[in-house]
Amino acid sequence: MLNMLLRSRELLLLVAIAALLVVVTWRFPGFITLANLANVYNDTSILIILALGQMVVILTRCIDLSMAANLALCGMVAAMLNFYVPGLPVLLLVLIAVVLGTALGAINGLLVWKLDIPPIVVTLGTMTIFRGTIFLLSGGAWINAHQMSDLFKSLPRGIVAGMPVLSWLSLAVIVAMLVVMRRTPTGRAFYAVGGNPHAAVYTGLDVGYTRFKAYCLSGGFAGLAGYLWVSRYAVAYVDIAAGFELDVVAACVIGGISIAGGVGTVPGAVLGALFLGIIKNALPVVNISPFAQMAISGTVIIIAVAVNARAERRKGRVILKRAEHVA
Amino acid sequence: MRGATTKSVCFIQRHQTIPRKHHLLQDTTPSRIAPAITLEGISKSFPGVRALSEVSLTLYPGSVTALVGENGAGKSTLVKILTGIYKPDGGSIRINGEPVSFPTAHAASKAGVTAIHQETVLFDDLSVAENIFIGHAPKTRFGFVDWAFVNDKARALLKEIGADIDPSIRLRDLGIANRHLVAIARALSIDAQVVIMDEPTAALSHKEIHELYELVEKLKASGKAILFISHKFDEIFRIADRYTVFRDGRMVGEGLISQTTEDQLVRLMVGRDVGQVFPKKQAEIGEPVLTVAGYRHPTEFEDINFELRRGEILGFYGLVGAGRSEFMQSLFGVTKPSAGAVRIDGDIAVIRTPSEAIAQGIVYVPEERGRQGAVIGLPIFQNVTLPSLGQVSRKGFLRMAREFALAREYTARLDLRAASLDQDVGTLSGGNQQKVVIAKWLATKPKVIILDEPTKGIDIGSKAAVHAFMSELAAEGLSVIMVSSEIPEIIGMADRVIVMREGRIVGRFDREELTAERLVRAAAGIGAVPGEGA
Amino acid sequence: MMSAEQTARYVPDRLKSPAARWVKSWESLLIVVALAIFLVNSFASPYFLDPWNLSDASFNFTEKALIAFAMALVIISGEIDLSVAAIIALTSTAMGYAAQAGFDTPMLVAIGLATGLGCGAINGLLVTGLGLPSIVVTIGTMSLFRGASFIILGDQAFTSYPASFAYFGQGYVWWVFSFELALFVVAAIVYGLLLHKTNFGRAVYAIGNNATAALFSGIRVGRIKFILFLLTGLMAGMASICLTSRLGSTRPSIALGWELEVVTMVVLGGVNILGGSGSIPGVVLAALIMGMVTFGFGLLNVPGIVMSIFIGLLLILVIALPIVYGRLSRRWAKGAA
Fold first, then answer.
1. Among A24, A105, B109, B407, which has the minimal tally of Cβ within 10 Å of its Cβ?
2. How do residues C78-91 score in pLDDT, each as one tens digit?
3. Which of A7, A315, A317 is most worth mutating to test chain B (most B CB atoms within 10 A of its CB)?
4. ipTM of this predicted complex?
5. Considering only CB atoms, which chain A residues are within 8 Å of C255?
């Protein structure tokens, strides 16, 4: 029983989160109230959405370092449209952000699929290109809160049935991803293509096309997150979410998504993001300087990678018959 | 008696050259049975290599056709063309008379062609049921995968082939024979007219092989056309109705099994004068140079004890997956055993890494040439000097002249055929790559050389060269451990044979007691070997 | 069989001379690109060809190039080190702390190099000792090291460095040649020899092409990879000394984003990101190219962020063009046949 428990990455992560909550609550009992936890969840929603997108890309043995730049560009476009073309309905702006994000993701996907350029190189390049484009569009100017329409800013904050729209959105994304990954052929294809790209060809799966789809998905999520970010923080400028792509990758790694591809689950990514979110929110109340956040994240990533690597390690070929079901 | 080979030293000894004509024997196939699939004039080339030249093949429903040929003859290329992995450069494929083409693997399976490939191409992190149905899982109304159906059908399929496997467990947790059974189940999950089996019994145990034969009979009875690729003649003569022989990318003979013999098939396969393939020099066998005691590993092998003497060739026989390579790699320091002691020339040896093994005189020529033996991407001469960098450098700085000299010396000894020593080792044929790998080890002047399936997948000319060389080494006082799954090779070359099965030693034989029967029995477990006593 | 080999028993050492190989290589493409950029820049701005301006320009790339040499070896071996910029930050913080405590320049240098080595050792242990994938490990240590800087410095800065410390980043060896430029040249030679002429370098290539086969050939893969991470740490320490000396101050946000610029420099230099091939001359050329582009754009008053669009495009184009060219030429060959 303990063995099975230890074998489930997600369960282990849940236990770790619980332990973290215990430690924090011991120092600050107010942390564990429902209201506060809901607040933490809301705060982490954007990271969850992005982590789910990155998860799909990493599953196919790729990586997307351009997610934050993508987010920033789409956010800026949405904010600029909101300011310069006041008549446009906010929902349309959200749609535009998502479509633009998907298109940007598609650029990554095409370069990886059709030109066979290694994903790290592609997304390194597009990362700077997307960011630079923000400057070209905005001339370096900021879009501030007073330049955004009220609805633009308040949409994610609106309370529906006790939770902000932002939380509902991330929940919807989680549910949608659960369905896609477990129940659609494309979802299974992501796992197969990343787990054994060589074999995937034999099973009739198109490795390149599957990766393209993964990038489109992560791009779309980045676009959505772009609108959510500029709306939530009520500001848009060139450097928003700088470095955030690494937080996203960190969330995935902590959540048990293997960088080698083929391994990882939706609950894992969500838990990984929540872990980081709790740390970020807990630090101020436990009187640890916010400057410590980075170092703590880094340590957590390293521990997570080490723990996951142990779990993944193959114990050699199983040859002795009696060892077959013990492995 | 067909099938079992005798104790003869020479496997092939022909002195007349065979004319390279189309060797069509009497083909009395009733012409009223329409072929299931016909290939005509299929050609396929890769850079520098012509894999298939104008090959024709016809498969009939309800009939098993054996495809025979040496490694490199083009069999796996043909399979890949039939399953849509490769596209032919020329020629046509017809199914039920209609011309078809397979732009993707998916198209091939939709057209009714399925295959059990030689390499298991499956996904470790997916469940058995998912592996069986990935790529063609039936969908429900909304486009979702119908998991209920998938799990039930997977269970049924596994039962049908006699596999005792739970469809919900992850593939990674299965042993090699069961993984192969999942591959078979996958092939059958596609409702196909044409079923291709590429060396299907290589990894199976005696009981499972029996069940496979029954499965083949069942498929035959339901009208499927089966292409059966094997190099085991007892199998071929037992279940095949027709045969086709490939050699050097060409089809050189076809006909009915009932009208041919093993010798004829071999003659077609080889087609030329090769002289002795198993030249064995009598070597003086001396004192024990290597003593292994109590080697054990948690999942791969246990209870390994033996002695190797100077000048001896010790054969290790067993089925694929018996644990021989795993043990050898442990001995060589690649993996850690959980227990075990080694003595070299009487002294206790500590081997924790390959470099320690090499320093103490044990070297290992791995089974997987491309993955473990040769560093593809580096030129030949750099491969040859890799374990001996100390010899070709001064104070850490490489000396080109010395490198080339060392490489020249040892590649010449092995009669390497290459355009230049500077070319990428990956452009060489399998046989020549193997020569480079062996050359690099000889340059370290070892005491013990472990050869793991040294002639697997290489042409017969290079096979003979490698064997002659092995014999020479033994005569010079080196000790050789030869892991092999080919009976003629073991019987031809070994002074003593150790048989392993499922991670344990199950038999030890001296040269005089060696018979194919005894080896096969020991390797397969208790019970008679199919085909014997017929 | 596959009749690609000759039947002659004598096998020559080489068919093509090394010089002939060089002509068709990535490095020669880079030379062309570098010359082109040099020419364009010379025409675009009258200030370009001034020796002192060029010397100033060199600061754009020398520090990153120091790290790029070690990074090239790491990437050729099949790994990557994304924590180098964070190592610069932590090293700089350590030196700043020591400077504030009153230590003199030689001690500062020692501390800087030691911190760099220490960080490299941590990376090395995690990758080789625990067998963890370097990309995620160094993402983790990147946060850890820079995070440590943040903990120590917060949003403050160290600014009290001894006067002699300024030599590294601001001093000149002879005429226009700065200390950093001289260091760059020395490092290029050392790493060039290390990679191309020694046993160690040969082992690095072998590991990058096929680590399994290298291991099976007796190469001590773990030990060599560990040393490679020590080297990136060391070079980051060296770069940090130069950078801190040049800026005269330390903030935790120093060298932000530099790891990706270093990787860009390495990949632009022809090193395959997947490992197994690449050269130091290529990295030198890439450093010069990136330096010239940055400087040239700077003279034209192009903002840094727009410059980086150009670098990003250059990176993708330079990788994509040979692939596209290869495919098109094969298609034309088939069409003609």
1. A24
2. 999 999 999 999 99
3. A317
4. 0.86
5. none
